[in-house]
Design a protein that fits this description.
This protein is of the alpha/beta class. The protein has helices spanning about 15-25, 35-45, 65-75, 100-125, 125-130, 150-170, 190-195, 195-205, 215-225; strands at about 5-10, 30-35, 55, 80-85, 135-140, 175-180, 235-240. The protein has one domain (about 5-240): Rossmann fold. Strand 1 (about 5-10), helix 1 (about 15-25) and strand 2 (about 30-35) form a beta-alpha-beta unit. The termini are far apart. The structure holds NADP nicotinamide-adenine-dinucleotide phosphate.
Length: about 250
C-alpha cells in the first residue's frame, strides 16, 4: 500500500510559516513544525482537515540531533515527505561589535545548518525512499544586499541561497530546489519594527507596491511546489513589493 504523502514546513507555528501551512492544507497534508506544542496545535486547528495534519516538535538549534529525530518521526509515522519548506528563522539585529559565538550558532543553526541536515534526511532511501520532489527555502531580500546590524542574519540567508543553488544542480532532475526572498512582512519577527509608527511609515515608504502580507509569500511557495513551476530550479525569487529594485532618490 502506498504511504500518505506530506509537505514538511519548518517554522510553521508562527507568522509566515503558519500562513503557508494553512494555505497548503487546502491541497496537501502538512507536517507543522515548531518548538511549542500549543502553538502548533492552534495552527493545526486552523488548517483544512486538521485530522490529517501532523505536529513535529524540535528545536533546530540542536541541529546535530535532527538526523535522528526527523528520521525516527518519518519512519514511525510511516509517511513520505514529498516537499520541504524551510521557513524557521531567527533574526536579531546585532551591531558587528556585539557579534558572539552564541549569536552565530543560534542564527546559523536555525536559518541554515538545520535546513542542510533536513534535506540530507529527506534524501535517505531508508527513511524517505526517493519521495522528495521539491524544496523551498524562505530566505530574505537582504541575502543579496547589506544593512547595518544585519551581518549574521544576512550571511545566514546568503548561505541558504548558496545551499539552494548547489542542491538544485546536484539533485536535478528528481528534486527541484528554489528560494523565496521576502521583504518586510508584519509578523512576530518584525513586530518591534512595526510597533514604532514612525519607523514603520518610513520603511513602508521605500516599498513601491506598499505593504506586503504572508499571502504574498505563500502564493509564491504554492507556485514553486506545484507543477506550474516544473521547469524552474536553482532560483531566488524576491517577493518584496519592489523594495530592492528601487534605486531612485
Ligand atoms: N517577517 C519578515 O519581514 C521576513 C522578511 C524576510 C524573511 N523572513 C523569513 O521568513 C521566515 C519566517 O519569519 P516570520 O516573520 O514568520 O517569523 P516568526 O513569526 O518569528 O516565526 C519564526 C518561526 O521559526 C521558528 N523557530 C525560530 N527559532 C527556532 C528554533 N531554534 N527551532 C525551531 N524553530 C524555530 C519559530 O518557532 P516558535 O514558534 O517555536 O518560536 C517560528 O515558527 C524566517 O526564515 C525569516 O527569516 C521574514
Amino acid at each position: 500500500m502506498s504511504k500518505v504523502q506530506y509537505i514538511l514546513v519548518t517554522g510553521a507555528s508562527s507568522g509566515i510559516g503558519s500562513f503557508i501551512s494553512k494555505c497548503l492544507s487546502q491541497n496537501y497534508n502538512v507536517i507543522i513544525h515548531g518548538r511549542n506544542t500549543d502553538k502548533i496545535n492552534q495552527v493545526i486547528s486552523e488548517c483544512n482537515n486538521p485530522d490529517k495534519q501532523l505536529a513535529f516538535v524540535t528545536d533546530l538549534q540542536q541541529f546535530e540531533e535532527i538526523e535522528a529525530v526527523l528520521g525516527k518521526f518519518i519512519i514511525e509515522k510511516d509517511i513520505e515527505v514529498i516537499g520541504f519548506v524551510h521557513c524557521a528563522g531567527f533574526m536579531n539585529m546585532l551591531p558587528a561589535k556585539m557579534m558572539s559565538v552564541a549569536a552565530i550558532q543560534k542564527t546559523f543553526s536555525t536559518n541554515l545548518f538545520s535546513a542542510a541536515m533536513i534535506v540530507k534526511v529527506l534524501l535517505q532511501r531508508k527513511v524517505n525512499a526517493g519521495a522528495l520532489k521539491n524544496v523551498v527555502f524562505i530566505s530574505s531580500n537582504i541575502s543579496n544586499f547589506g544593512a547595518k546590524a544585519f551581518s549574521l542574519y544576512s550571511a545566514s540567508k546568503a548561505g541558504i541561497d548558496g545551499l539552494m543553488r548547489s542542491l538544485a544542480v546536484e539533485l536535478a532532475p528528481d528534486v527541484r530546489v528554489n528560494s523565496v526572498l521576502p521583504g518586510a512582512i508584519h509578523t512576530p519577527m518584525t513586530s518591534a519594527i512595526f510597533q514604532d509608527e514612525e519607523k514603520a511609515k518610513s520603511m513602508l515608504s521605500t516599498y513601491p507596491l506598499g505593504e506586503g502580507f504572508p499571502e504574498d509569500i505563500s502564493n509564491m511557495v504554492e507556485f514553486l511546489l506545484s507543477d506550474k513551476s516544473k521547469w524552474i530550479t536553482g532560483q531566488q525569487f524576491t517577493v518584496d513589493g519592489g523594495r530592492t529594485i528601487d534605486i531612485s532618490g
